[in-house]
Amino acid sequence: MKKNVILSMMLIVMATSAQTNAQGNAIGAEVGLGSLKYDKASGDDSTDVSWTGSLYYERSLMPYLGISFGLHTGDGSSIKTSTIGSATKEDAKLDYTAASVSAVTYLNLFQNHRLYGSLGLNYNNVELTHDSSKLVDDDGFGYVIRAGWEYQISEPLSVNLGLQYLSMEDVDLTTTNFGVKMRF
């Protein structure tokens, strides 16, 4: 009798987790606009407007907890730099890419609306160029923090609006992002 109860419970748990796993995957894309601060910029003007783009895969581990793997890219185009041998400051272009792993959590508000937040680490590459010459090419580690609101349009499709803070090698980025997510 005990064996039958244990076997039945195991089958129920396996069936429940299989059903949860079927809806536990998502892919998404986000675009954003915000401010970029470069720590090594010369002078006081180290902030620039930046765009960002992200692609990510998300896996639900529990109803309110998941893990996210993301790719981030973006740029800033008027970073102040001092040219070697010159007393003048010139604008340079900063490009970055980052790969991140984050823990994600959700808070359901009401039907089709929920809040999300995530915290994770990233590995990144930052390049600073001026007139086709590469001034900086640094790799490093940083962190990513995201928080926002998500609206489920249909069963697999949702849109989100949120804030993102991406800290990289000598670069801090704060953006407002708009995204689309597809669950499968």
UniProtKB/TrEMBL annotation:
The organism's place on the tree of life at top rank: Bacteria
Domain Outer membrane protein beta-barrel: 9-184
Signal peptide limits: 1-22
A Pfam cross-reference name: OMP_b-brl
Keyword set, alphabetical order: Signal
InterPro entries given in the database record: Beta-barrel_OMP, OMP/PagP_B-barrel
TM ranges: none
Name of this protein: Outer membrane protein beta-barrel domain-containing protein
